[in-house]
Each structure stands twice: as structure tokens, then as C-alpha cells.
Amino acid sequence: MRLNINGQVMDLEVDDDTPLLWVLREELGLTGTRFGCGIGQCGACTVHLNGGAIRSCVFPAVAAQGTEIRTIEDLGPHALQKAWLIEQVPQCGYCQSGQLMKAADLLSKNRTPSDADIDASMTNFCRCATYDRMRKAIKRAAKEMGPLPVPEPIEPLQDSEVTE
Ligand code: FES
Ligand code: FES
Fold first, then answer.
1. Where are the alpha helices (DSSP H) in 45-108?
2. Which of 84, 128, 135 to mutate to test the pocket of ligand 2 (most atoms within 8 A of CB)?
């Protein structure tokens, strides 16, 4: 199958039912993405698919063909990483790559997240309970990043371009 991972297109020989997480870790050595529960519950395996967070342990690699996959190895430089350090978020660190990918997804859509927004979005588990520090770091990064870019206005169609 052909996958686009961190901007590189590659052809891989893996079974169609292989989870994306296995391809990342075992075939490509991208071990920043973690294996936790393996059943889509904990979020340690979070990566981005076309910019949105997914749990790669339950996502068949074959379904990722034709998309853009991004892993923690290609996240930076990102304001979240600096904020994570300043707020000293990680404890054991095991869940943190997934947490960063999830937080990056949140900030790609919301630059003024409330605690409620963060809690609703940050559904990955952290056994070390770093939730409060993650909230602080996400707000710090959001402030540093500033408002979301305003989308380009869509030009109205001219009468001559309208077809029945
Ligand atoms: S390892 Fe994927 S959700 Fe837990
Ligand atoms: S920092 Fe230890 S599990 Fe999250």
C-alpha cells in the first residue's frame, strides 16, 4: 500500500488489516507514537490524519491511503512543545506524544479554549494525572499562537459563470 507519512510518500508491503500504529512503529521505526491499550481507549497512539486526531491502534493502515498522516516526529516546532516545557507537564511521559497531537488538533480549530473545551477535547488518558498542567500549557500555547487565520473570502460567481 502507498502511504503519505510526515510528507513522505512510501510504498509498504503490509497486510490490509494491519493497524496504522503497527506500520508506524514496526515498519517505519516512528516510535514516538505509543502503544497503550490497543483497543482505542487511551489515546497514547494518537496521530493526525488530514490534520485531525485519530487513534492509530484501531485504524487500518489501508484506510489511510490517499490521506496525509502526521506523527509526533513531524509536529514541531510547535508552540505547544515550548508551553509543555514551561508548565512542566510530563511526569512519566508515556502518554505525552498522544496528548500533544490531540492538543494540536484542538488548537487548529480553537485558539481561545476554555477549561470545558479542553476537557471535552482532551480525552486521552494520563495515568500520572497531568490534566491540570496540560490545561495551562494549552492555554499558554493558544495565547502565543494568536487568533486563527481568517479564511479567504469566496468570490461570488459572475452571472456568466452560473450554469443551470
Ligand atoms: S493504544 Fe490506541 S487508544 Fe490506546
Ligand atoms: S505523563 Fe505519565 S501517563 Fe501521562
1. 79-86, 96-107
2. 128
Question: Which amino acids bring their CB within 6 angstroms of ligand 1?
Answer: 35-38, 40-45, 55, 57
Lookup: cell for 21: 500504529
Order across the sheet with 46-49: list the strands. Answer: 8-11, 2-5, 68-70, 46-49, 52-55
> Nine-digit cell at 11?
510504498
- Ligand 1 binding pocket mutation candidate from 24, 25, 31, 37 (most atoms within 8 A of CB): 37
Q: Which domains does the chain have, with CATH numbers?
A: 2-74 (3.10.20.30), 79-145 (1.10.150.120)
Residue 67, pLDDT > 80, answer yes
Which residue lies with its CA nearest to atom 4 of ligand 2?
126
Helices (H) and strands (E) counted in the chain, each on its own, are 5, 5
97-147 residue pLDDT tens: 999 999 999 999 999 999 999 999 999 999 999 999 999 999 999 999 999
Alpha carbon of 54 to ligand 1 centroid (Å): 10
C-alpha cell at 98: 498522544
Q: Is the pTM of this model over 0.85?
A: yes
Residue 99 Cα: closest atom of ligand 2: 4
